[in-house]
Structure formats: structure tokens, C-alpha cells
Specification:
By secondary structure, the protein is an alpha/beta fold. The protein contains 17 helices and 13 strands.
């Protein structure tokens, strides 16, 4: 196919969660993999400030917004009509062949007739609205946005075969319209040496010679961090030298439905304050070392469309304890222990095993590393580009 003029919604670029990571990584790789195409990125001021992609076949258009979409598209908020229309008009002015939305999270109405590929990462908001969208108003706005996006999209991209099955079942998307672009760990994520792990542990205020588990992500009800705290407390009560627990993620700027109060109540109720550490946001370079030194990465969510924190930890040679309700049992087969959502006993047993059985833990870590290395962003970008080219044809 000859070179296309591809519009891209880059307003998600500033998002600190998985949506933002996918946007940044997939778009950067697509621009390189699709050198014959020209990419026009549309961003608000907040996204433009951190937009570092520079390439001869890429240009950025900044569109003024009263509120940044990554902040306005919150669990309990909604975006202004005028803001969305400004983005629509900006897209209309360009002579585009096709449009790519890396996430329905920041979707805005596209000009009529413009062919589009929209990415929907999972069906969690639809399957578990009480855990993700706190109000009836938020649920109504979310459903309206997704319905419009599906109506305008020629093809729907998602991040795993598991998620594709969820979108077909829950949202009724025809399998014929679904395409998959797998996520991957950034190249930075790799096993680090013991000196770097020790220094990172010290910066995280862990005692000398401490062992630790890591949780990385948002503190939302469907993530079941409260169960992690309870399982960790039960494990700590059984061991003379209990491992610590690092809760990694922003605690003051997450626009999604939070559950911090209940998590803190659990910590207080189990008197585990001296073993649980809220680290706040941790940059990738530092997080790599914390992952490399961890006993395991914990992700026992109700559901995950992909589970990128687990794959990033696996790329550091760390086994995972993660939800079965995700693609992770297949993606990281042999690289961890996979538990049913909400199964506290299974979670505690898995943590106990990896804290006490070092040969098994090391074997799982090696397998996790092998599986994670098979995933790359260029491969994901080629799948996304194929979908975009198909939609434009």
C-alpha cells in the first residue's frame, strides 16, 4: 500500500497508566515501522508538553483544551462538548486517509466518513461498573462514548486474544472487526545487578537485607489491593523474617475510581504499617531495580485486559502472582502462579510458596523472563499498522 496520511489521537500521551504507556510505545514503534506513512498527532497542551516523538514522517498539532482529556475523562467526570469539537475540527482540517485512536479512554467524535481504528483495551468498565465507575452519570457518559466509538470505527483494536473475547461477549463486537496488537515491556526492563537492587531498596526505605513483594498500578477496587494486604499480613504472621510489601503507584493524581481508604484501613486493622510501604510513582529506571529484587509481582485483579505491570516485572526475571481472569496465564505460562479473582486463600498460598521455596521461585523467574522477551513493541506496532492499513483500504 502507498503511503497513508494517518491521524492519531495523542491526547492520551500524558496518561500515567497503561493507556498512556500503550499510546507512547505503540505510536513510537509505528512511526518507525511505518516509515512510508505520514502520521499527524493531535494533542492537547498537557500531552504536547511531554510529546517527545521526533521523526521526519511525524508532526504534532496542538489543540487548545479547557481541561486536558487525561484529566477530564475521569471516573467521576466528563469532557466538555466544546473541547471535543475543537479536536474534531482540527482533524477535519487535515486531509487524512484514516484515523487511529490508541485508547477509547480519550476518544472524541471524528468527522463523518473518516475511516478509523479504535483501541478498546478491555471490557472491565462494562463487566464491573460498580468497581470502576462510581456514579450513574459516569457510567452513562462512558457507555455513550464507547457506543459512538464503535459506531465510527471500521475496525476495533485490542491488546490480547483474551480481551478480544471479552469485547465480543460483553460489548457485542463482531469478531470479524476485532484485531489484536500485543503489548510488551519497554527495552529498559531487564534484570539488574545486586548493587542496583540494594540501592533501590534503600531508597524505598526498606531495611537492610529485606525481602519484598511488589504491587504496581492504580488503587482501584477491581485491583483487589485490599486482598493483597490481607494475604501479606497472614503470611507475615507465620514467618520470623516476613517480607515487606511495596505499593507502587500515584496516590494523589489518579483520576480513576480509588479505593485507598479501604486499603489503609486493612493495613491498620492488621497492624502491618511497618511492613507496607506506599512508594508513590516510581520511574521506570528505578522500578526496574525494585522488580528485579522482588520475590514476585502481585496482580490479583478481578480482570486484566493485558496486565502490563506483570509483563514488565517478568522482563526483569521476576515471577508473578496474577489473576487467571486475564491473558497472563498464557502470556507468562510457567512464569508464575495464577489465582482466581477474590480467592484470598490461594493468594496467600502463592505468596507463601514464593517466599519460602527459592528453587521454584528462581525457575519461575527464568521462565517469566523467557516469555516476556518474546513480546516486543515493534511486533505490536506491525499488527496495529496492519489494522490501520486494512481500515483505510
Amino acid at each position: 500500500m502507498s503511503g497513508l496520511e494517518i491521524g492519531v489521537d495523542a491526547t492520551c500521551w500524558a496518561n500515567g497508566r497503561g493507556y498512556g504507556r500503550f499510546t507512547r510505545e505503540i505510536c513510537t514503534a509505528m512511526v518507525k515501522e511505518g516509515a512510508r506513512h505520514r502520521f499527524v498527532f493531535f494533542a492537547d497542551e498537557r500531552a504536547a508538553d511531554c510529546f517527545e516523538l521526533r521523526a521526519p514522517n511525524a508532526r504534532l498539532i496542538t489543540v487548545a483544551q479547557r481541561v486536558s482529556p487525561t484529566q477530564a475523562a475521569a471516573a467521576d467526570g466528563n469532557r466538555g462538548v466544546l473541547d471535543m469539537l475543537r479536536l474534531t475540527r482540527a482533524v477535519w482540517r487535515e486531509k487524512l486517509d484514516v484515523f487511529f485512536c490508541p485508547s477509547v479512554y480519550t476518544y472524541f467524535p471524528l468527522p463523518p466518513g473518516l475511516r478509523a481504528v479504535v483501541t478498546i483495551h478491555d471490557a472491565i468498565a462494562e463487566r464491573y461498573p460498580h468497581l470502576t465507575l462510581p456514579s450513574r452519570k459516569a457510567r452513562l457518559f462512558w457507555r455513550a462514548k464507547v457506543k459512538l466509538a464503535l459506531a465510527q470505527a471500521r475496525l476495533v483494536l485490542t491488546v490480547s486474544e483474551f480481551s478480544a473475547r471479552e469485547l465480543a461477549e460483553v460489548l457485542g463486537v463482531s469478531p470479524a472487526r476485532l484485531r489484536v496488537s500485543l503489548e510488551a515491556p519497554p527495552p529498559l526492563y531487564a534484570p539488574s545487578d545486586s548493587a542496583d537492587r540494594t540501592a533501590a531498596a534503600k531508597r524505598a526505605k526498606l531495611p537492610d537485607s529485606a525481602r519484598w513483594f511488589c504491587y504496581v498500578g492504580g488503587f482501584n477496587p477491581h485491583k483487589h489491593v485490599d486482598l493483597i494486604v490481607r494475604a501479606h499480613a497472614a503470611l507475615a504472621a507465620k514467618l520470623e523474617d516476613p517480607p515487606h510489601l511495596l505499593l507502587v503507584g500515584t496516590v494523589d493524581s489518579d483520576v480513576f475510581h480509588g479505593d485507598q481508604a479501604r486499603i489503609r484501613d486493612e493495613i491498620q486493622a492488621h497492624q502491618s504499617e511497618n511492613l507496607v510501604h506506599w512508594t508513590g510513582f516510581v520511574a521506570d529506571g528505578e522500578l526496574r531495580h525494585l522488580h528485579s529484587g522482588a520475590l514476585a509481582l502481585l496482580l490479583p485483579s478481578e480482570c486484566e485486559g493485558f496486565g502490563l505491570p506483570a509483563v514488565e516485572a517478568a522482563a526483569c526475571g521476576t515471577p508473578v502472582i496474577a489473576t487467571r481472569n486475564s491473558p497472563l496465564p498464557e502470556l507468562l505460562e510457567g512464569g508464575g502462579i495464577f489465582v482466581a479473582p477474590g480467592d484470598l486463600a490461594a493468594l496467600e498460598a502463592a505468596m507463601t510458596q514464593l517466599a519460602s521455596d527459592e528453587p521454584t521461585r528462581k525457575a519461575m523467574g527464568l521462565r517469566a523472563l523467557e516469555r516476556a522477551r518474546a513480546l516486543t513493541w515493534p511486533a505490536g506496532a506491525r499488527a496495529a499498522l496492519a489494522a490501520i492499513e486494512e481500515a483505510a483500504a
